[in-house]
Write a structure and sequence with these properties.
Layout: E1 3-7, H1 13-23, H2 36-43, E2 44-52, E3 55-64, E4 69-77, H3 86-100, E5 105-107, H4 115-121
Bound molecules: coenzyme A.
Coenzyme A is lined by residues 23-24, 75-77, 82-88, 110, 113-114, 116-117, 121.
Length: 135
């Protein structure tokens, strides 16, 4: 079965919490209990859901400033589905939909280890960025 990609596609909290736990194994407080459905409807421009048959295999959240800047957050692909282009395609859908919404910039930040994914595969240009861990 081919993987399907849906902008603002249907999902439930349990399946995204499970995917998030697999993608980001370091647990944070209240991990696994996030109300993703409420959160993305409240704050996001949209999100992309990837399914292989019925199973959720990928998800990315697209947040924005309401006008021109969009950011991708929590790009995640289920372990067995990795290395097949699912992550790259999730980002491509996010990029096209942000452009369709009138955004002129798509941002992401990531660690050195993910340069091959975001720069080489997804097409982001390298830039300087800053980050502060808040208490
Ligand atoms: C990063 C992630 C979303 C990539 O998804 P994916 O579907 O495996 O990615 P793709 O198959 O589209 O990868 C395309 C290319 O990107 C690079 N790439 C993919 N995952 C990578 C990783 N984890 N580290 C470094 N490079 C990676 C590879 O060059 C790959 O090409 P190849 O398969 O020919 O070697 C997935 O590994 C994941 O969910 N990781 C855990 C969560 C995470 O770190 N998310 C990003 C937070 S900023």
């Amino acid at each position: 079965v081919a993987v399907t990609y849906e902008w603002r596609g249907h999902f439930n909290d349990l399946e995204v919490n499970q995917l998030h736990g697999q993608a980001f194994p370091i647990q944070v407080p209240h991990e696994g209990e996030r109300n993703w459905v409420d959160l993305v409807h409240k704050y996001s421009l949209g999100w992309v859901v990837a399914r292989d048959d019925a199973a959720l295999v990928g998800f990315v959240n697209v947040i924005w400033d309401g006008l021109t800047h969009a950011w991708i957050q929590d790009t995640m692909v289920a372990q067995p589905a990795r290395g097949r282009g699912v992550g790259t395609h999730l980002v491509e859908v996010a990029r096209n939909q942000a452009a369709a919404a009138g955004c002129t910039w798509l941002h992401v930040d990531f660690g050195e280890d993910l340069k091959r994914f975001y720069i080489d595969s997804c097409g982001f240009a390298p830039t300087s960025a800053g980050l502060i861990a808040l208490p």
